Prior knowledge:
The chain is an alpha/beta fold. 22% of the residues lie in helices and 18% in strands. The protein has twelve helices and 18 strands. The longest helix is centred in the last third of the chain and has 20 residues, at 490-509. The chain is globular and about 75 Å long. It starts with 18 loop residues before the first strand and ends with a helix. The model has no long low-confidence stretch (mean pLDDT 95). The protein binds flavin-adenine dinucleotide and iron/sulfur cluster (SF4). Residues 62, 238, 252-258, 265, 267, 269-270, 392 line the site of iron/sulfur cluster.
Amino acid sequence: MTLVRVAPPLAQDVDLSQTYDAVIVGSGAAGGMAAHVLTTRGLKVLMLEAGKKLPIEQELRSMQWPYDHPRRGDAPPGYHSLSFNEYTIRTPPYAKNSTFQHVMSYVGGWGGSDYVKNILVDEKNHPYTGTKYAWVRARALGGKTNIWGRLALRLSDYDFKGKTHDGYGDDWPISYADLEPYYDKVDLYLGISGVKENLPHLPDSLFQRPNKLTFGEVKLRDGLKKMGRVLTPYRAGVTTDGLKHNRYRSKCYGRGACDRRPGGCDIHAAFDSPTGLIYPAMDTGNLTIRTNSIAHEVLVDSNTGKARGIAFIDSATHKSYEAKAKVVIVAASTLESARLLLLSRSSAHPNGIGNSSGHVGHNFCEHVMGPGVTGLVKDLVGKPPTLDDGRPGGFYIPRFRNLKDRQPGFVRGYGFEGSGGFSIFPGKATGAAGFGAQFKKEVRDHAGAFIGMGGFGEVLARYENYVDLDPDAKDAWGVPALRFHYQFGDNERKMCEDMVAAGREMFEAAGIEVVGTDEKVLTEGWSIHELGTARMGSDPKTSVLNQFQQSHDVKNLFVVDGSSHVSASCQNPTWTIMALAWRSCEYLASEFKKGNV
Length: 597
Ligand SMILES: Cc1cc2nc3c(=O)[nH]c(=O)nc-3n(C[C@H](O)[C@H](O)[C@H](O)COP(=O)(O)OP(=O)(O)OC[C@H]3O[C@@H](n4cnc5c(N)ncnc54)[C@H](O)[C@@H]3O)c2cc1C
Ligand code: SF4
């Protein structure tokens, strides 16, 4: 396999007099998958992406050591990453009145903001209002997949049929059996590493070579076995064996760089939408891409009420354009997609397109995180160093609450993400005791002995958690900003208390000394797993989309990202977003050929 690192050229001078078969808004996991499926089925597709096409390898500089960077990875003066306190004490828009020239979301603060300063949006240009929310956005070809954390999990019928299981919320209009073949397709097309565990609540993928667990992680895994719980190597959306059908991606060489900074892999072993989906789609000859194109309205044919295209603004010139298409596919990410639907008001759709139910923007859900535990594996103190950090992830402990049991205080569950062992920066060095040579010995002796994990819990989908358009605030292009009406509830708070107690209990059961617990619940939005603002359902009165992510109101309008999710599950969403988009676009392509959309 000869790797082609050079991306196919993008056509910026797109022919807008043409009517495309489909126009896709957004180029992340959802938009990329829509482009892959539709172009391989012969549809002529135009993709509009608000961000730039970046020379991503030069942005990520995955193999750069901290000491090779003039500021150890920090962004240049004038840049600022929002902190927990800023999100918590102040209210949005967070960049208002900031004296910094550029304000980025908190992700930039994860030890290397120079690497994401052009990928994340500048909050100054992209304000939002309302309740506190750490909204992380990436406007670039590929969206957030350029820097995602790679944990690639499936949902199960504990999620799809959650209401049947515990009475809360609504079931999805599909079951695991409907989606399983598409999860398989995603696994085979993109590559995923992991180990089979045969768990009904965390179905296995078609895995490539797994990453090794470290000594401390194996110790924890053994301890958990006795409690009937499971610790499995990080299920990473990474190709560890390589993909013969994709010439833009290399197999993983275990350089651990993606785990060192806020994501990103410059040889694209970790999935990203451009190399995984978009460049191969361009190779079909059926995909045209226009970057710097901010969609602000789904255009409607006033005679039929159907979608006829997209109105967009060029982000660089601020000029307005229209793109014409027979089918419109919205894939701008959960909150941006809701914003676009709400912005698309017409006489046929006075509350926004596809919103006759009034549910667009509502049932907004995600994951709650923050609580966690840090432990010391005493057997490792003073032992010679081992090479532990060349991995794209550590471990995952799947949900164990409210499966067969019923917890007092909360419904649904949470999983833990964690890792232990040696890493590029010695764990807890700043907290070590001593001075001079004694301090250095203390740091070296303990460097590989720490293990830590943090919970990710399901936030319940609630109608009263929603976003709408702010009547006054606008972004730098004059497009109305989103306003949040969103807060965690009692279920989330109780679940977070349980995370701390359960984490401690598990470490103790494994013979790992607990040296710290985190009880703080991070600000709403912190998980970057926003979902549910245009949910699927069988009843057009209480849902926006049908099981194929097709608008109940407008049959040539599809919304193929996380906004369609009925509940958040506690498993990370990206693999499900792509499996659903694959299924829906396959349906769309066959209906298109029959002339039914
Ligand atoms: C640091 C980080 C870690 C993460 N870790 C994980 C993880 O471990 N596991 C997991 O499952 N998920 C993870 N995620 C989340 C994951 O990245 C998202 O679930 C996924 O990218 C969603 O895909 P999407 O296509 O819906 O949105 P995005 O990837 O955000 O793509 C949306 C695209 O639409 C474009 N767009 C937006 N508005 C418009 C408009 N008006 N007009 C035109 N284009 C527009 C954007 O510029 C963007 O390129 C992580 C995210 C981040 C940032
Ligand atoms: S560990 Fe693998 S996926 Fe991560 S940066 Fe290195 S090669 Fe890429």
